[in-house]
Structures are given as structure tokens and as C-alpha cells.
Write a structure and sequence with these properties.
The structure is a homodimer. By secondary structure, the first copy, chain A, is an alpha+beta fold. In chain A, 35% of the residues lie in helices and 21% in strands. The first copy, chain A, is built from 5 helices and 6 strands. Chain A binds a DNA duplex through helix 4.
Amino acid sequence: MSDLLERLRGRGWRLTSQRRVVAEVLDGEHVHLTADEVHARAVERLPEISRATVYNTLGELVGLGEVLEVATDGRAKRYDPNAHHAHQHLVCYGCGAIRDVHPQGDPLAALPASERFGFTLSGAEITYRGLCPDCSTGS
Amino acid sequence: MSDLLERLRGRGWRLTSQRRVVAEVLDGEHVHLTADEVHARAVERLPEISRATVYNTLGELVGLGEVLEVATDGRAKRYDPNAHHAHQHLVCYGCGAIRDVHPQGDPLAALPASERFGFTLSGAEITYRGLCPDCSTGS
DNA sequence: TCCTAACTTGGACTTTGTCTAAGTCAACAC
DNA sequence: GTGTTGACTTAGACAAAGTCCAAGTTAGGA
């Protein structure tokens, strides 16, 4: 993730303590955090960091392509730092757990020209839905 | 869509004018409306209908499987009455236009067992992203 | 060390959606 | 037809998620 900070500095970013902390939080083990969760973890390291800055920083990271926005549930967006490896998401409709998954093949290949309506396609987001092992045994 | 009303009555629904109006609105040509857009169109036909009733009715239709919730942008959810024909969505990142599309094959087949992490899969939602003809010429 | 544009802050504001208590009415029984 | 009743609707308060702004702070170049 220090790679990330260097990349950002190379793009003219001012390297503030707030941005550093947000980057560190995203680099942790919890990889699909909401903005509020990022803020909560950031506050532990830098108590005076504001919500607005967290939103600003996340937005900038998304704009730079360093972080992905994931909207799996229509509630708060989640932020996925694994932006440099193409992947999709598998979501449990019991507990909401999210896993990164790697389907085979190119998802765009499944959409024939007749179904593209003149669009210039750039990508596809797939959300697989199911029950995770914990939730399916508990039923 | 009167089919829909009959189906709902068969399931014990009280057939109120409000529910009728919401069903009529969803049956129109604009098929990916937000809750507020549904409300705005419903008010044209039944001025006293409340936002709460629109939200309630949409939620019930989703619960009954008659309407799909679509979250393509992390903003307001959209409601898709085309629930009885499996389909996916193609979204323009210029103007936000949404089209129903029908990819070939079973999307679940692309996810090998080693990438399922013990989940019991039930479906997949695919959002194809691209530029629509209008937005790509205008650039 | 100084300067300044970029960054951050707190709080007001907006959008989207949920909840509640009180009033209304669709559908059934007669 | 009329009455009854529980399901439905309403207005408005509330909550969650996110945006915006004016004022203050600061990273990094000169």
C-alpha cells in the first residue's frame, strides 16, 4: 500500500496524514468497508479526521482507479481496494458477507452484438448471490 | 398488468386505488423508475397518494417477486416490472440510460466450484457498462 | 523560512428511505 | 344494501448516507 501512496504522490497528490490513514485502513484485512466503517477505523488512528475528508479521499481514490465502489445492496456503498485484479463479488443474502471471486472467461463475450444496442462496452460487474456455509446450516 | 392485479388479489391483497395506480405506473413504457419517479407519476393520476404508500407497495411487489429492485448506481433503487423474464442490465455511464439485455448461457456456469467457497448459489446479477450511441458521438 | 494553493473541518443541507399513530375503506357476512 | 373489522393509507417525524460550503490549516516548492 506504500506503493499506492507513492503512485498518488507521483500524480500530484499532497500526502496528508488524513489520506495516509485512509489508505492504511483500506489496506487492512477488512476489504469491503462502507465509508462510515472506513471513517470509524480512521478515527482510531487520527481522532480528528472528519467524515467529509473520508468521503473526499474515497471519491478521489475511486476517480484515480485505485479503489472500486461496490453497491451490492442498495444501502451504503462499499469500497474495494483490490482494484488492480479483475474480479467479481459473491454475496450472502443471509448475512451480507462479501467474497471476491474470479469467474472464468470474459463476461462481455456472453453479450452478443444484437444485445448491445450500439453501446461501446467497457466492462461488466457481476454479483453472484447465494447462502454462505454458515447461513445455510443455520436454516 | 391487469393479470398482475388479479394475481395479487388471488394472494389476498386488498385491491386499493393506490395499489392499482402504482401497478399502472410500472406497466408504462418507462420501465426502470426510482421510487420517487413512481410516486411522481402516481400523483398525476391520484393526487393524494403518499410517498409511504408507494414505498410500501413497491416493497410488497418486490417481496412477491412481481418486480425487481435494481441498484445500478448506488443512488436510488430502481424498480423493474420485467421480473418474469430473466435478464440483465446494460447501463450508459454517460447518461445513465438502462436497457434490459439477454446474455447467452448461464452466468453461474462461469464460477467454478473452487470459487464458490461453499456457498449455495441462487443467481447472478450482471451490470454491463458502456457508452450509449448518443453519448459516444457527443464526446 | 515563507507562501500559497490544496487540503481539511464542522456543520448545515439534501436525498433516499423507514416508522408511527390516527384515520379510512375493501371485502366479507348478513 | 348495511355494518363490521382488520388491512391499508396518510402526514409528518425520523434516520441513514452522502454532498456542499466558508473558514481555517498545512504540505511542499521557491
